[in-house]
Design brief:
Blueprint: H1 2-13, E1 17-22, H2 28-33, E2 36-40, H3 64-74, E3 83-87, H4 96-106, E4 113-116, H5 129-147, H6 153-178, H7 184-193, H8 199-211, E5 223-228, H9 234-242, E6 246-252, H10 256-259, H11 269-279, H12 290-304, E7 308-314, H13 318-333, E8 338-343, H14 351-365
Parallel strand pairs: 1-2, 1-3, 3-4, 5-6, 5-7, 7-8
Helix pairs in contact: 3-4, 5-11, 6-8, 7-8, 9-14, 12-13
């Protein structure tokens, strides 16, 4: 993580305005087109030493993602951020902006905070398109007023094209993982490190990763699909690889759900946002995608040919746990074994238990 913070520091010295974004699916292209460096505040476990600041504000039965996010923003690492952006997703994360703003004011550190409301309505019954367009226009205006920057439709179209290229490279790299030419752990590390980098550097790193791909000699095992808000911790990924499991597809929120769809190339930020939030890869945190998500997930299981499915539960994430029982039944009805693993802020204390369960599941599949 020191490498990522160093990269942010380098960008700030070059005059970049850093904007911390949460949850996972902010309108990155708009920020980048206006000269801001968007930093997706996700998978922050390695960047924090404790939760002392977060525990003053967030209950210990909230998910680790929210607790680590608040700790990052309110501790010294938060000084890397010039402003924050958030939109409404799960019940926990949608309430964090007020907590963060109040705490920052008390500490004499009052940075701009931008928000967008994303209607969680069924698109077949109500069309929120015009509302979303207005939200985008207001967001652009707020950023212009806060930092004296100007929005350019030409620059925006270029940025949309660049992000589409980055997402396409992510899909290419994911396919190489399925072909046993890249390790899943290295792939995850590179994608998540990109959250702290300009998109141009993400593209460079992805190209280098893809160019270095080669067929690996691994223990004979089975093909699995993994699903969850977060990928497994690194020691669990290593246990999967040691057991010979190949991740032939993933339904991870910070992976496939993030880069699985790119909006059509346009110079209109409103049209871009409507397209992105209407057609993006379904996620359990987007309630309006609930029906579509179930079908998309089962189609992914079928298309991947996975011999087993591993659900990675984020402790206290009610959105995922509402789905798991139904999805598990659908998968088992197809004769495909399922493993559920749950992770929280203290998962590092249970390394061997996770490894044992992964090894046993791998033996079941072969």
């Amino acid at each position: 993580m020191k490498q990522q913070l160093s990269a942010i520091s380098r960008q700030k010295k070059a005059g970049k305005i850093t904007i911390g974004c949460f949850p996972l699916y902010p309108p990155l292209e708009i920020f980048a087109a206006m000269g801001l460096l968007p930093i997706v505040l996700w998978n922050l476990k390695e960047s924090i030493e404790n939760l002392s600041e977060s525990d003053r504000h967030i209950q210990n039965y909230a998910c680790g993602i929210s607790r680590e996010l608040v700790q990052f923003v309110l501790s010294d690492t938060g000084n890397y951020l010039d402003c924050l952006f958030s939109y409404n997703a799960c019940d926990t994360l949608r309430n964090l902006p007020e907590i963060i703003a109040s705490s920052n004011r008390d500490a004499g550190y009052d940075i701009p905070m931008f928000r967008m409301h994303l209607p969680q309505v069924n698109r077949t019954q109500t069309n929120p398109g015009e509302y979303i367009k207005n939200e985008m226009l207001q967001l652009i205006l707020d950023i212009e007023n806060a930092f004296g920057v100007k929005f350019s439709t030409h620059k925006f179209q270029q940025t949309v094209e660049i992000y589409a290229k980055m997402r396409s490279l992510c899909m290419n790299a994911e396919n190489l993982v399925a072909k046993k030419m890249l390790s899943f752990s290295n792939f995850c590390r590179l994608v998540h490190s990109g959250y702290f980098l300009p998109v141009e550097e993400q593209i460079t790193n992805l190209k280098q990763l893809i160019a270095s791909a080669e067929r690996r000699s691994i223990k004979k095992g089975a093909d699995v699909l993994i699903s969850g808000i977060m990928p497994p911790p690194i020691h669990v990924m290593h246990a999967m690889e040691k057991a010979g499991l190949t991740v032939v597809a993933n339904d991870i929120a910070s992976l496939r759900r993030s880069y699985g769809y790119s909006p059509k190339i346009t110079d209109d930020p409103g049209e871009y946002a409507v397209d992105y939030y209407a057609n993006r890869f379904p996620c359990s945190t987007m309630l309006y995608q609930s029906d579509e998500r179930l079908k998309t997930f089962m189609d992914l299981v079928d298309a991947s040919g996975a011999q087993g499915v591993i659900f990675l539960g984020e402790k206290f994430c009610e959105y995922e746990y509402f789905e798991f029982p139904y999805l598990e039944k659908q998968i088992k009805d197809k004769g495909i074994p399922v493993l559920q693993l749950e992770f929280g802020v203290d998962d590092i204390q249970n390394t061997e238990a996770y490894s044992t369960r992964v090894e046993a599941f791998a033996e079941l599949l072969v």
